[in-house]
Records
---
Amino acid sequence: MQDALGSRLKSAVRLSLYVCFTVPMMAVQIVALGASKPLARNLPLWYHRQCCRLLGIRIERRGRQSRKTPTLFASNHVSYLDILVLGSLVPGSFVAKAEVKSWPLFGWLARLQRSVFVDRRPSKTARQRDEIMERLVAGDNLIIFPEGTSGDGNRVLPFKSALMSAAASEPNGVPLAVQPVTVAYTKLDGLPLGRSLRPFYAWYGDMDLAPHLWHLAGLGRLTVVVHFHPLITLAELGSRKALAAHCKERVQEGLAAALSGRPRRAAETQTLSGP
């Protein structure tokens, strides 16, 4: 045993299966990027769903997910697992910090999903905003983490209004749809995941990635709640600052509801199960 909450054997099996599945899928995605835009857009959706199953992640989807194309999804950020979880639900690309591009394996995966990499230096802001807007105008859904970093999963950090600048774009002359999204890590093997256990999944501060991932992979079955909140536009709120505050408030409300275990109506919840 790794400790009372994890198994070395389970870590080795899960991560081996993940790597053995991921490497050939990367080759398939490279071909898809050159041959078929629809396939290159939808293959990551299927890939992330299979990865969630391999790692024992069970997803509860709440609310009504936007079917408008494009949509800018604005989510809180807890862990690298957010990529698998949101990637299994949203057919789109992520907006990631520039450092991710150089990460082994995960950086390659991000590039294959056509992620937009942003450099937070002020001198780069305008060019990167334009790149994001171009992708939205082209009809690509994008997922952003307006906190600008990952948190401990117990609260939502302030949303940075600068990261909401892309919401000013109007594809085909129509105000861009923005959807706040809550990601909450709620249960381990069906039991509530309290504050003391959530750091096993939340990755933040100066945590080292490799040992965190190894320990996480050896744990039991994780339940993640993903709550899609009502759509909003920048035009309705009048400013990026107001939009950022609105999205942060909706996401915080969703997090509080999910972590408290408040029941949801069956019509509002869909469960996507892993193994």
Note: Residues 8-35 form the longest helix (28 residues).
---
Amino acid sequence: MTVTTLAGVGETVRHVGERVEERLRVVLGDDHDRYAPLATAAPDVVEATRTAALSGGKRLRPALAFLGFVGAGGAADDPRVIDLGVALELLHTACLVHDDVMDDSPTRRGLPTTHVRFEDAHRRSGYAGEPRRFGEGVAVAVGDFAFFSSMGLLVGAPAAAQREFFQMAKDVCVGQYLDLLAAAAPADGAPDPEVIAGYKTARYTVEGPLRLGAALAGRLADLGDALTGYGRPVGLAYQLRDDLIGALGDPAVTGKPAGDDLRQGKRTLLLTLARRHLPPDDPAARALLDRVDTGRLREAEVPAVRRLLRDLAIHDHVAGACAALAAEAVEAIAKADLGPAVRRHLIQFAGHVADVSAIDALPGRPAGTEGAP
């Protein structure tokens, strides 16, 4: 899913991603020129940020911020909303680069992750010290650079927009910590996966960008509750959808190794949903999911978990849960003063996120289940 294929969005929204990318290239180009005279390697951090930010991605957050802004009465050609979109993309880049270190992910969008790339460069160059620590250290610096760059783009934004942005960023950090804790702590003391998804994903993927757009237009006070009521359930549906792709997706399509969340012992919304549908007389299946929860799943067992999820018809259960979340979201904005065009776009987007039948990266689904509720 990209900005150009978001279901039902207007022609202007389809160009938001392009405008954000153009501005992003200018911002990082200026940074490269600033640091190039210092030392030959000085722009490496900038170039790594550029690679991470421009190697793909949905540009979803800028599009939603734009809808929040225009829905709140902002002008579609206001350059401030493009700078806000770039700030969101740089924040997202920072989170992804750091997340890849925490998850020890080897690839992102089909390319080596930042820490892996610099680890390999250290090894090839024969530098002193440990390659892994060097790679991870550079990735921390790259993520920090992306975040600080995002802050710079908010200069001049209304105070309400700045407060919303930084609160959202802090919420993501707390969500990330809870995600790490959930993978490490005993199951009976682990944080609720829905709380994690609410802070780590829903907050800055859907709810936050919409609220930021409204704040930039000066209307967060009267639209904030409705946008939160929409953004949280759609964000949870988005996370469920992402969990489904992560567990069962084809790496050739997703750009990430299949089953990474299973290997890492992440207690995702998907696994919570799967547990609700486990047969009570199948202790072996329950034990298999328990090994995922405790991080003790062996590599050879990953295919077995994927088969179990398919046997449980998890795709159809996700479809039902996402449809219910989308309905909740639509109800939340039914009477909001957003204008008919923006409301229609948001309703269509909620339906798009809920339509998991559109996911074509799930090998092995039983025939005839497409679009099942």
Note: Residues 220-248 form the longest helix (29 residues).
---
Amino acid sequence: MSAVVALLENIDFKSMGKNDLRDQLKTIRDNEGMTFVDIGRQCGYSSSTISQFVHHGKTSTELESAVISFLEARYEQPEAQVEYTDEIGIYPTTEFKGVLGFCEDMRLRQKMGVVIGHPGTGKTTAIREFCERTEGAVYIEAFTSMRMQDLLSIMAEASGTELKRGSNYAKVQQLIGAMRNKELMFVIDEAEYLKKWDVDKFEILRKIWDNTSVPILLCGTHDLEEILTRGNGKDNLAQLYRRKYMMKLEGIKEKEVREILKRYNITREAANHLVAAAIDVRHGGLGNFVELLELCLEAAEGSEISIEIVKDAKKYKLMF
């Protein structure tokens, strides 16, 4: 029984037996270009588990329930829409709203916080939005060649002071004096780049917070978590580590992606491929999804986004 027939007849997947479910997954793999890796990711199981189910019938109640949920979401009849959009904006996902809330909590409680997530999970979008909405919140983007003096100068400018010549110690003391009683918060993106040969910048930030209670939030990949946990092998960050609060992003969920895609004129098969890209947090996640969707909208020029357009967008993106 093909997936197309199942859709047209509006079949209740819950009433299907094991073999019918296996046939559905085979059809999706053979006719729609999804791999068992993609299917397993959306079902919450490994590709080998899906393969064992499809080829050998090895199953469990939990696995069959997950497959049924996957099929129901995949072939859900779309709601009637008056008009589609071709605009891409900020998507207020659960994690996006969670980061905003976490940042605000750190600000109100005057704490040091850390946001960790793979590239493309929406960290930068969320913290930039928080800084734009919040008076006194200063966004700082770290980079590989950033010196201690660079970091201190940026913080000093936000504090309304100009650092005098002297040692880093003298500059830090001047900065601490300037920051006291100021309604400030520093949000440092790509904070893993603060480590070059040592972890001194992290220690300076910790001392500034200790002496001013100005909230500081570090945002970065899992490399940042490794640095905060282990230091650089010679120096550790135990004093900072025990002071910080941490939020980890897992990436957008399938249901949220499908809700986003309801705004666009897109075929079901094309949507399924974009869903797979969005929830693949180790290969760009939400960031990759947004870039692909943008390319698809440009190529469609107001028409329906087809699977061919999605595939062409993937090929084009790999060129750059």
Note: The two ends are 40 Å apart (CA to CA).
---
Amino acid sequence: MKYAKHLLLLLTAIVLLGSCQPRKPAPPAVEAAIPLGPGSTVAISPDGQHLLVVRALAETNEGWLIQTDGKASYKLFDFTSTYLFAAFSPDSKSLAWSTGKVWLADLETSQTKVLLGDDTDSTGAIAWQPDGSDLVVELSGKLVRSDRQGKVLNEITAAESVRGLSWVKLPNGSEQVLYNSFPAEAPPFVAAVSPAGGDSRKLAEGEVFSVGNGRLFYANPSSEGSLLVVDISGETGKKVLVEAGVTGLAPRPPAFDMVAYVLQSGETANDLWLIPATGGTATQLTKDKPVLGPLWSPDGKHLYYSVFNVEAAEEEEPFSVVKLPVP
């Protein structure tokens, strides 16, 4: 009997001791996603007010601007090409896009003009200079620098099949043009070159990339799909964040301390995850949905992405745009 009494006292002490221990905070709850309408995400304006999305129709495609608060949207252009590259100007007042020719729209006046290219040219990826004065564009197998009037200022470098382009200002104040090339006889790679032109410098082998705070985030979806980060100046700090299965990525501004990535989880499902840029435990944001095209709001508080409806009828737009608040 006395042992039972001692056992009861011991159990009581353990319970009280456990209740006094500091508890690990629970991970922040992800809020419910907010639907914004049909379309697939292409670009977000630097002021965070608009998204450019594509709506696919039977005979043509449409480029739409939708407000990120979901209150309004309007069609900006039609196109029939199989690709679209687009970029908002740093002041969010202009939009450049490439669909066979390079077009430029003044979003305040809705005036649109051909910036570069004609029926004999091929055009591709686009990026703006950080101060918004010039652009870099893929034009017939070369990266060229153009002003807002469409005057080619200089050739930057020859580049084969560029699918990603970024003009960045590094922490040391210098500017670099980063591009993603898919050569026919070699693995895809990311390289950097001066906007004034010259020899390009290969940074890494990869098929998709993004840049933030002088670091390169990249992945190679068609092979193992690992997600890596490295300093743009060289191999300093190279780290594997995710071993395999990554099909898309978006580092979180303004600190770029987290990376949202799309992880293939089945034949039709691609889930959205979040991981620290230094590595560590990942947080799953969506489950069992075909997700693609993640874009961050400039303040890093919302993720925008598209969801594919595998059961959509032939006449229906199969993609829808979603806004996800992220703590």
Note: The longest helix spans residues 2-20.
